[in-house]
Specification:
4 strands, 38% strand, alpha+beta, 2 helices
């Protein structure tokens, strides 16, 4: 189902979605097709987002399209103290 259909079915609501297809352009992921898992009350949206796994997301239907910013994880590297001693 495309996002415009979801917006018509669930106006002004948070919905939990499974991403079926997407494309990437300039460090942004554009979601093309989704499957609706369930509608979510506003007060539970954050909790549901934290429970989402893999290709699941929570999004509000007030948004005209689903666009996700792709971030590169910058991790900290642990240096073992004893490894660097001579």
């Amino acid at each position: 189902m495309n996002w415009s259909e979801v917006r018509r079915m669930y106006p002004n609501r948070f919905v939990k979605l499974k991403v079926l297809s997407s494309h990437i352009n300039d460090n942004r992921e554009f979601i093309d097709e989704v499957a609706v898992i369930k509608s979510i009350p506003d007060e539970l949206a954050t909790k549901e987002l934290l429970k989402a796994k893999g290709d699941e997301l929570v999004y509000h239907t007030a948004n005209e399209e689903i666009v996700l910013e792709i971030r590169q994880d910058v991790g900290l590297r642990r240096i073992d103290y004893y490894e660097n001693q001579v």
